[in-house]
Specification:
This protein is of the alpha/beta class and 336 residues long. The protein has eleven helices and 15 strands. Bound molecules: NADP nicotinamide-adenine-dinucleotide phosphate (NAP).
Length: 336
């Protein structure tokens, strides 16, 4: 029996749905063990981020699980393999069909629970730091929403690869964790603009900005010559001012970037780059996904409310048919 989370008006329910039958030539079917809540799921649920054409309308951008079957052209994966996958949708379900290039074996030494926390954050971090912004060793990064699932990944990955990170978040407790993960500078956004703090840290060569809105002019003020702003979200609104004079004189670049809407081959390239460059760091535990807490899939509603309230530091996971023993709803999740 195939089940999935269905969104009806304001509410979510875990219901039987159409079974997955066809597995196209270059795809695999995965029996899902774990999935994760991403900010994009909240936006999709609110009607503000529709799935790209052809994608599943079921929530969920990443999973871990076991390969159930493979299409005729797939050589690199086989039934029974434990994997994690980057999706364009369909993760809040018991089974998903996904292009094989978006699937990787779980890193050595990892269980399925931890593996579900990897694909979306690590693919987004790699894509934007090293493909879009083309960071060179020693160049410095400012990341906003640094305690998010994505931010905690960016801090670790950039630091491990020789790019110092300045983190912004809304509480001192969150920033303490950012520092422990490797951030060498930080600013509590509840205390106002980050400009002075980042400037006295020496400025940055790149801003990874999921906020937009009023943050763009301040991002520009802290960028060194030839700096790049990669805009990946609009938490602060879609309209903002750009100082074209500063942009011209300091040779700044403003780059918009989304992972989900990219073609399958581009996503495959990002996953290959992760396998080559990041999987060894994960296996060595030099970096690891920061997991905040887990919920049973039937409690997706509560898990999403927890994320919407900006309470998480790192990833929030949903157990579908999980096999690893999981500490459900660690202390601070209880009762949400
Ligand atoms: N373009 C892409 O391809 C792509 C891919 C993945 C993620 N993203 C974006 O990256 C961001 C992080 O994703 P996630 O799923 O890891 O998020 P998450 O864990 O849900 O964390 C989001 C955090 O953003 C901060 N925030 C919320 N509203 C804000 C505001 N108005 N101004 C400043 N900060 C605010 C909050 O932390 P504080 O209160 O501590 O600041 C919140 O905890 C999201 O905006 C997401 O849409 C984009």
């Amino acid at each position: 029996m195939t089940k999935a989370i269905r969104v009806t008006g304001e509410s979510l329910s875990w219901e039987e749905c159409e079974p997955v039958v066809d597995v196209p030539e270059d795809h695999v079917a995965i029996d899902i063990a774990w999935t994760a809540v991403n900010r994009a799921d909240l936006m999709q649920r609110a009607g503000a981020y529709p799935p790209p054409p052809g994608a599943s309308d079921i929530l969920g951008l990443e999973v871990s699980g076991t390969i159930a079957s493979v299409g005729a052209g797939v050589r690199t994966l086989k039934p029974g393999d434990e994997v994690c996958a980057l999706l364009t949708g369909g993760g809040y379900a018991t089974r998903v069909v996904v292009p094989a290039v978006q699937v990787l074996p779980v890193p050595r030494g990892y269980g399925l629970r931890e593996a579900a926390a990897i694909p979306e954050a690590f693919a987004t971090a790699w894509l934007n730091l090293y493909h879009e912004a083309q960071l060179k060793p020693g160049e410095k990064v400012l990341v906003h929403a640094a305690a998010s699932g994505l931010g905690t990944t960016v801090i670790q990955l950039a630091t491990a690869l020789g790019n110092p990170v300045f983190a912004t978040a809304s509480t001192d407790d969150k920033l303490e964790i950012c520092k422990r993960l490797g951030a060498s500078g930080c600013w509590n956004r509840s205390n106002g603009s980050f400009v002075e703090a980042v400037t006295s840290w020496g400025g940055v060569d790149m801003v990874l900005d999921p906020v937009g809105g009023s943050y763009i002019p301040d991002d520009q003020k802290v960028l060194n010559v030839d700096g790049r702003i990669v805009l990946i979200g609009l938490l602060g609104g879609r309209m903002g001012e750009v100082d074209l004079g500063l942009m011209l004189v300091k040779r700044q670049r403003l780059i918009g970037s989304t992972l989900r809407s990219r073609p399958v081959n581009d996503k495959g390239d990002v996953m290959s780059a992760l396998y080559q460059n990041v999987w060894p760091l994960l296996a060595a535990r030099q970096i690891e996904p920061k997991i905040d807490c887990s919920w049973p899939i039937e409690e997706a509603e509560a898990a999403m409310a927890y994320v919407a309230a900006n309470k998480n530091v790192g990833k929030v996971l949903l157990e579908v048919t999980g096999s690893d023993p999981a500490p459900f709803c660690e202390a601070k999740c209880t009762g949400v």
